[in-house]
Design brief:
Layout lengths: L15 H16 L5 H15 L5 E8 L2 E9 L5 E3 L3 H9 L3 E3 L17 E9 L2 E10 L7 H14 L4
Antiparallel strand pairs: 1-2, 1-6, 2-3, 4-5, 5-6
Helix pairs in contact: 1-2, 1-4
This protein binds methionine sulfoxide (SME).
Length: 164
């Protein structure tokens, strides 16, 4: 049995850097030695859901045939294909840069998969300088994500570059 949960011993709430350090360590332990990218993304989607509070969607879109295609996730069913440059995910994929959106309704072209989503963090995963997937986190709270979340997910994206 796998038991990967945040270790809160000795503290009431984990700092974000510590939470993301534990998440990365669990992701590393779960994916190392496993060559199947879909299996690894599925386990990391489950880990993000387990570790990161106040989410309504956590998962991956993969770059296939020049567009983003839905990958493993936890949350409600989502749009399957997103062209590069469209929505928050497509913008992260086309620019290769993290998109931290405090209010999705203020983001031009935001694609609403779940009406509950109010803020979003999308981080590209690069392999040899090319975007191969994005990590997408949605929250029902406006302004849920900050620079510490972005830094934590960027570290996870780097770690996953060789695992997906
Ligand atoms: N909101 C995203 C679409 C994906 S869902 O949030 C799961 C976007 O604008 O790209």
């Amino acid at each position: 049995m796998f038991d990967f949960t945040p270790d809160r011993s000795g503290t009431e709430t984990l700092s974000k850097p510590e939470l993301y350090r534990q998440l990365a360590s669990a992701a590393d332990a779960l994916t190392s030695g496993e060559p199947d990218g879909v299996a690894n993304m599925a386990n990391v989607a489950a880990l993000m859901w387990e570790f990161i509070p106040t989410l309504n969607w956590a998962g991956f879109y993969r770059v296939i045939g020049g567009e983003l295609v839905l990958g493993p996730f936890v949350g409600r069913p989502a749009c399957i294909r997103i062209p590069f440059g469209q929505g928050v995910c497509g913008t992260a994929a086309s620019t290769g840069e993290t998109q931290l959106v405090e209010d999705v309704h203020a983001f031009p072209g935001h694609i609403a998969c779940d009406a509950a989503s109010k803020s979003e963090l999308v981080v590209p995963i690069l392999k040899d300088g090319t975007v191969v997937a994005v990590i997408d986190l949605d929250s029902p709270e406006t302004g849920r994500f900050d620079d510490e979340d972005a830094t934590g997910i960027e570290a996870l994206a780097k770690l996953l570059s060789c695992a997906i």
